[in-house]
Amino acid sequence: MYKILIVEDDMTIAKSIKSCLDGWNYKTEFITDFKDITAEFIKFNPHLVLLDISLPFFNGYHWCSEIRKISKVPIIFISSMSENMNIIMSVNMGGDDFISKPFDLNVLVAKVQALIRRTYSFSGEMDIIEHNGIVLNLNNATIELGSQKLELTKNEFKILEILFKNIGHIISRDVIMTKLWESDSYIDDNTLTVNMTRLRKKISDIGIHDLIKTKKGIGYMVE
After folding, report:
1. Would you state the pLDDT for residue 185?
2. In sequence order, what E strands does 32-184 have?
């Protein structure tokens, strides 16, 4: 089920859009606290964003720019500010489409379906994975906690990627080693231990502690 985040401060419109898209079997949420839309975006981890331009605190252009720092998720602007300059601005800020208010909900659904189909027909993966406030960016191999951000090495990223994609499940050492070195040839078991120790130390420097759990004799997991 594809998830859609509705960023619209007119609650009548937001609820109308939600009701319509829910009927098309999308999972939707609309923003009620407009102070930190990026945090709400990360928490919900949507496949598409519907974004108004005129919003409390900061406008839609600002939030589009902030989202683009962490994700390539498709964004459709919805606004009564339909002058050519606003449409051009929306595209330049990273928007994928623009719908002028007032709009027909059937047109909105058609645009949503088309954009989701184009974006995810070959890959349904998201650009980020969030867990307990920790954000793993699959696009640029970084990990973030709050305002702290770290660039990961190839092996560090691969370890976290497989663990984050299997949260709550133990991943065996053999599986991780095969993923890291992509080879069936023998790799010294201690090599993985060294990599894991370095990774834990590195992420602890930005306040990420006890993220990776060791299951003795079995493997590792993120709970």
Report:
1. 47
2. 48-51, 75-79, 97-100, 128-131, 134-137, 142-145, 148-151, 171-172
Domain chopping of the chain, boundaries:
3-120, 128-222
Write down the pLDDT at residue 92: 73
Q: b/e map of 11-42 (b: 16 or more CB within 10 Å)? A: eebbeebbebbeeeebebbbbeebeebeebbb
| Residue 188, pLDDT score | 64
pLDDT for 150: 92
- CA–CA–CA angle 187, 192, 195 (5° rounding): 130
CA distances from residue 125 to 15, 93, 157 in whole angstroms, order as listed: 27, 23, 16
CATH 1.10.10.10 fits 128-222, yes or no: yes
Peptide bond into 46 cis (omega under 30): no
Looking at domain 3-120, its CATH architecture is 3-Layer(aba) Sandwich (3.40)
Question: What is the reported pLDDT for 124?
Answer: 47
Nearest to 24 by CA among 4, 8, 45, 44: 4
Residue-wise pLDDT for 146-192, tens only, equals 888 899 998 899 999 999 988 888 998 888 888 787 654 446 668 88
Sequence-distant (≥ 6) Cβ neighbours of residue 65 within 8 angstroms:
93, 94
d(C-alpha 151, C-alpha 154), whole Å: 10
Asked if residue 85 has pLDDT above 80, the reply is no
